[in-house]
Amino acid sequence: MSDIILKLNNATKLYAGVPAIENIDFELRRGEIHALVGENGAGKSTLTKVMAGVVMLTSGTMEVSGVAAAPRTPLEARHLGIAMVFQENSLVPTMTVAQNLFLGQEKFYNRLRGIYIAAQQFLQSLNFDVTPTATVGLLGAAKKQMVEIARAVLHNARVIIFDEPTASLTPEEKKYFFDLVRDLKRRGVSIVFISHALEEALILADRITILRDGKHVVTDDAAKFDRARIVQAMVGRDLSNTLYGTRKTTVRPAGARVLTVQNLKMAPMVRNNSLSVFAGQITGVFGLVGAGRTETFKVVAGVMKRDFFHGGEVILHGKPVRYRVPAPAVRAGIAYVTEDRKVEGFFETMSVARNIYLGLLAKLPGGRFFLSRREADKVGSGWVERLKVRSTGNAMKVVELSGGNQQKVVIAKSLVQDPDLIIFDEPTRGVDVGAIVEIHELIQRLADEGKAVVVISSYLPEIMALSDRILVSRQGKVVEEFSALEATEEKIMYAAVH
Amino acid sequence: MIAALRAFTDRLLGRGDATITVPSFDGALKPNQILANAETVGQFEAPEDLATDGNALYLADGNTLRRLDGVTITEVRRFDRAITALCCLPDGGIAVALDGREVKVFASAEAADAAVTFSGSGMNAVNALSPGPGKTLIATDGSATRPYSQWVHDLMERGRSGRVLALDRASGQVRTIASGLRHAFGACVAGEEIFASESWRHRVIAISADGSQRPVLDNLPVYPSRLSAASTGGFWLTAFAARTQLVEFVLRENAYRRRMMAEIDPEYWIAPKLKSNQSFLEPMQGAHIKTMGVVKPWAPPRSYGLVIRLSASGVPLYALHSRVDGVNHGVVAAVERGGALYAIAKGPGRLLRLPLAAIETELLR
Q1: Which of A221, A253, A281, A321 is nearest to A422 (CA)?
Q2: Are A82 and A230 in a shared domain?
Q3: Where is the domain boundary, A200, A235, A270?
Q4: Of A4, A53, A457, B281, which cross-links A77 as Cys (Cβ 3.0–4.6 Å)?
């Protein structure tokens, strides 16, 4: 019997013609723990989704135990013995542990007592301390993970894939989780796990694979890695990538302090976070997924609420503010350009002009009773021209625009409010190269005009190219600050994962 | 009734005045070790204030006025009381505040008798002097209830009796420019306005000729103190301690604070200090200070050293730090002379010297 249980050859997956992974060769040995490491967007999730049948390869092949396989659905992957435990777990919160375990395997006649007994026996065999009659919604993060793992083992999974399994666990729960994974390994189960915490990869894994920009960089025994080698492999980009320009030689001096966040708390994502934002500067905020960057600035913009008790302070222009909804924040001069434009950014079936006009209406206290189509067209045309939105006219629906032009509409919707503080959350995600350059120019121009600009990005070259000062966020708080002149990709990544 | 209800809910929810938060040292205030690594020019018994006439540097050391010419330190004169503030005047004169209650102006540092003496007018804790417009002298009086040496009592009593005074050398009159300040500590003329530090409100305010005030720099993570002019425009602002959440918490707990003040030696109060780590009796800071036996520079500070360089409009440009693991704490005065910055670290009793060209090359590149 071959030692390789799962193999991918020349695996390539394209999304709208853009490769998420490209020509990746990957081998998973029987009974090994294999860590997948890489920056956000490196292709880790896509690779594991291919294995789990969530997405299919555009080209390349996959073999399970030496036999060619191409699972089209997670169910097909499960039949091949591959199960995936997602970051946001897929359990039904209102059902009990036992019901979740046997979900999809119900018989014609089901007896609760029967499945409770079966679940109890099964959980005991795994040595999992979970009550089968407990409602899943009331369980802690670690126990939910256990139920997910138990479900995977129950389905005779020979390969279990974990996507960021420890992100929501406490240190004690993490230790328990590591023991569980080692126990699964002893049972001959192969584990693939994605982690941003490099210590976990070094401690737990037998082998580590590092991906970068959708390409395979290196696979080696974990013992042959140290933190420095992993970080170097994660960020050592192809220098021919000139989109983000050369290294900065000057930075804009800080103006007056516009925003101060003091000891902000929003459990579990934002933990005692403190930072300042200054006028006339671009403040870049870097961090890996789950670092609490978006949540911090959503609290500032009134999109989310801080903790009810001792949630900290947000001070705008020297005055403490507490926005429960975005409207007063908009009126106070805060604009938040969302990272998820399709859900939060615009009304896709409305016209470009009307979307931009909505931004203006949000600034007016109480809105406006009579709306003027002429005013909407005038405002829309002005911003379409200023931001070079490529559309066939004001009446064109936003859904018909390209990603880059949709993003420009979202930005225009915020800029029409004439804000003092503009927060760009992943401003060039899913945007074509030409639009990236234009959006970057716009952001630079806003800072030159004296606005306080925040750019949240998971893409290091973007942060390096735009920022005058760089804040690095980890586990819900800002942990390091660099001037753009002193920052290097290695330094930033080290602060983000250390 | 509504105010009482609001105060109760604020305390319960940790909001409004009951928010116990402290801003971070970021932006221009990003920590470094420059002040901690500064050259020590001399060690003194009780250094308090600095002044320069452009050539020599004058140092108030307890009752003694000293002069630094080049590398030589000489005693100029002694007073019968401690000098609490010092400044050189444009006409070559020198002004000293004695015990915080009296201000004497001499025609020169060596002049036998004072040309003008200001006393009375409620002066109680004069802690800084600065040349004002014309023949005036600007003074800050920290507290009307506590002497200068008891500044920590004033903080714990949440004192709000600080004043900025204009002392007219021609007429001998004392005029109050601003009052009701929460420990005024340091002032400097800035164009048509006067910048003054308000320590317990952690801010610098600008006072205009008509007496109106506006914040220039507020919500600082430190307790600001004396201001002096920088040679290339702008100011040097010193800070004698950093704020912590623990002290902010104690300041909001009235019953606890009163009992602490009544029963505990002030040395061991939960309050900012000019130097720390001197005794095991010092209260904990709300987080551990050492890791593997080494003091963490980022631990909650009981004492701290900071000098901030401000632009002419009061925007911080950069800062020089002596962090928790350093000793140059309790910085109360800084003046620029001959391309170097001289600062007093009152905690260890040191006069420090920092070459500015090298610092600005490092911090403003």
Answers
A1: A281
A2: yes
A3: A235
A4: A53
Number of domains in chain B: 1
Whether A395 is covered by a domain: the verdict is yes
Residue B118: which domain range? 2-363
pTM of the model: 0.73
- Give me Rg for the CA atoms of chain A: 25
User: What is the maximal distance between C-alpha atoms in chain B?
Assistant: 65
Q: Which ipTM score applies to this complex?
A: 0.83
Task: Tell me the sheet residues that pair with B189.
Answer: B194
Residues A411, A445 within the same domain: yes
Q: Strand (E) positions, A394-446?
A: 421-425
Closest CA to B148 of B55, B263, B60: B60
Chain A: give the shortest CA distance to residue B205, in Å: 13
Quickly list DSSP for A330-362.
HHTTEEEE-S-IIIII--TTSBHHHHHHHHHHH
Rounded Cα distance, A2 and B101, in Å: 92
- Helix (H), strand (E) counts: chain A: 16, 20
**Contact A318/B218, CB-based, under 8 Å?**
yes
Find the chain B residues whose C-beta atoms sit closer than 8 A to any C-beta of A. Answer: 12-16, 19-24, 26-28, 30, 215, 218-219, 245, 315-317, 365
A219 and A311, same domain (yes or no): no
**B89: closest CA among B74, B72, B109?**
B109
> Which letter does DSSP use for residue B263 in this model?
H
**Which residue in A has a C-alpha nearest to residue B13's C-alpha?**
A309
CB B199 within 8 A of CB B214: no
The separation between CA A46 and the C-alpha centre of its own chain, rounded to angstroms, equals 13
Cross-sheet strand order for the sheet of A59-64: A18-29, A4-15, A59-64, A67-68
What CATH number has the domain bearing residue A72?
A: 3.40.50.300
Number of domains in chain A: 2
- Dist. CA B327–CA B329, nearest whole Å: 5
- Alpha-carbon distance A225 to nearest alpha carbon in chain B (angstroms): 26
| Domain co-membership, A294 together with A372 | yes
Q: Which two tokens stand for residue A158?
A: 């020979």
Q: Round to the nearest angstrom and report the end-to-end CA distance of chain A.
A: 40
A443 shares a domain with A304:
yes
Q: By residue range, what is the domain housing residue A69?
A: 4-235
A:B CB pairs within 8 Å: 62
Question: In terms of domains, do A311 and A358 share one?
Answer: yes
Torsion of CA B354, B356, B362, B365, to 10 degrees: 170
The CA-based diameter of chain A, rounded to the nearest angstrom, is 75
* pLDDT tens for chain A, residues 1 to 498: 568 899 999 999 887 677 888 999 999 999 999 999 887 667 888 899 899 998 899 999 999 988 999 999 988 998 899 988 876 567 888 999 999 988 877 777 778 888 899 899 988 887 778 899 999 888 876 778 788 888 888 887 899 998 877 766 666 677 777 888 888 888 889 999 887 677 788 888 999 999 888 899 999 999 998 877 887 888 775 544 545 666 677 889 889 899 999 999 988 888 889 999 999 999 999 987 778 888 999 999 999 999 888 889 999 998 999 998 998 999 999 999 988 777 788 888 888 888 888 888 888 877 677 778 888 888 888 888 888 887 767 777 887 776 778 888 899 989 988 999 999 998 887 676 667 778 888 999 999 999 999 999 888 888 988 999 999 998 889 999 999 888 888 888 888 877
Cα distances from B149 to residues A129, B58, B130, in angstroms, run 62, 21, 20
Does the distance separating the beta carbons of B219 and A260 come in below 8 Å?
A: yes
Rounded (10°) angle between helices A403-415 and A373-386: 120
- Strand pairing report for B203-207 and B193-198: antiparallel
CATH of the domain at B289: 2.120.10.30
With beta carbons under 8 A apart, name residues in chain B contacting A310: 13-14, 19-20
Quote the minimal CA–CA distance from A480 to chain B in Å. Answer: 9
